[in-house]
Specification:
Blueprint: E1 8-9, E2 15-16, E3 18-22, H1 51-61, E4 68-72, H2 82-90, E5 97-102, H3 107-117, E6 121-125, H4 131-138, H5 146-155, E7 161-167, H6 176-185, E8 188-194, H7 212-223, E9 227-228, E10 239-242, E11 249-253, E12 266-269, E13 274-276, E14 284-286, H8 287-292, H9 298-306
Parallel strand pairs: 3-4, 3-12, 4-5, 5-6, 6-7, 7-8, 8-11
Antiparallel strand pairs: 1-2, 9-10, 10-11, 12-13, 13-14
Helix pairs in contact: 1-2, 2-3, 3-5, 6-7
Length: 330
């Protein structure tokens, strides 16, 4: 299913080949940094793109060089029969890579089905390895075992397996060492993400942000030394390090201390069909209404890239009107 097409560039000359697709705004967790405990006002079903509509948008964007996809939410695995969408996307000419971001709750049961449908790899969000702390951060008790979820993904051939850890001072930063040690025994790639205080997550502030340099220092001590190295395949902005002889790697993602907007290669499709050109920007283009009216979306894509901002303004606490990260799948 591979094909070499140069991606369309935005106004900054950045080639945009990566589309993140939110399939739902709902989630079975209420993580401290992602969604208010009471939830949000959910989108009506009629406003959410069908699987066929999502596939048609991707089919129209593929000739413009969109070749790498990530399925997100909310929590994407709570949308029924997600493997049907994966299969539709896998069949589109030009699509080279399909990834999934998930909290992992359903992976033990569903990883093999997703892989059989055409999913290539998976990112598991895991902010603790301790059951009681998982419950406290998620504000839900669904029996999640992050290690079992990653093992299920690995058995299914979803490679590479990446583990995303949002580090929060005084909440889970004492587990940096435990997460780093996972890379000594498993071919997993643990990525520590700086907390992004967003919207209504007012209980988390700059005081809870742990700079990546501090995280790396603690991970380095835990594994007996890290050296900068090549990371796994993928689209993300992480910088990777590896302990000698380790099958896995440690990565850091630094939206707060070292912005990476200059190399941004992505746009986001919301569950209700709006193309968002920056995670923390205000610029959006309504693909859904155009699609349902029978109009092509490829011209709208070109117009959207021409207006994609140079960088976000998160450091000024400008979140582009987001109430919660769950609204756009991160």
């Amino acid at each position: 299913m591979t094909r070499s097409v140069l991606p369309m560039a935005d106004a900054q000359g950045r080639g945009i080949n990566y589309l993140r697709i939110s399939v739902t705004d709902r989630c079975n967790f209420r993580c401290l940094y992602c969604m208010p405990e009471e939830g949000l006002q959910w989108l009506p079903k009629a406003e959410i793109l069908t699987y066929e509509e999502i596939a048609e948008i991707v089919r129209q964007l593929a000739p413009s060089g969109v070749s790498r996809l990530r399925i997100t939410g909310g929590e994407p695995t709570i949308r029924p029969d997600l493997e049907l969408l994966i299969g539709q996307l896998e069949a589109i000419s030009g699509i080279e890579d399909i990834a999934l971001s998930t909290n992992g709750v359903k992976l033990v049961k569903k990883a093999a089905d997703y892989a059989a449908a055409g999913l290539d790899r998976v990112n598991v969000s895991a902010d603790s390895l301790r059951p009681e702390r998982i419950r406290a951060i998620a504000r839900r008790d669904l029996g999640l075992d992050p290690v079992a979820a990653c093992q299920a993904a690995q058995r299914a051939g979803l490679d590479p397996v990446k583990v995303n850890v949002v580090v929060m001072r005084g909440i889970n930063d004492d587990e940096v060492e435990d997460f780093a040690r996972l890379t000594l025994d498993h071919p997993w790639h643990v990525r520590f993400i700086e907390l992004m205080p967003v919207g209504e997550m007012a209980g988390l502030t700059w005081e809870h942000v742990v700079p990546s340099d501090e995280v790396l220092s603690r991970a380095d001590s835990a594994v007996g030394g890290l050296s900068e190295g090549q990371g796994p395949r993928g689209n993300g902005p992480a910088k990777y390090y590896r302990a000698a002889g380790a099958p896995g790697s440690v990565g850091v993602i630094t939206p707060m201390t070292h912005t990476y907007c200059g190399s941004c290669n992505r746009v986001r499709l919301t569950a209700d069909g709006r193309l968002r050109t920056c995670l923390f920007g205000t610029h959006e283009v309504n693909f859904r209404d155009a699609l349902r009216a029978g109009a092509p979306v490829a011209p709208l894509f070109a117009e959207a890239l021409a207006s994609k901002p140079k960088e976000h303004h998160l450091l000024d606490m400008d979140t582009g009107g987001l109430r919660a990260l769950s609204q756009v799948g991160g």
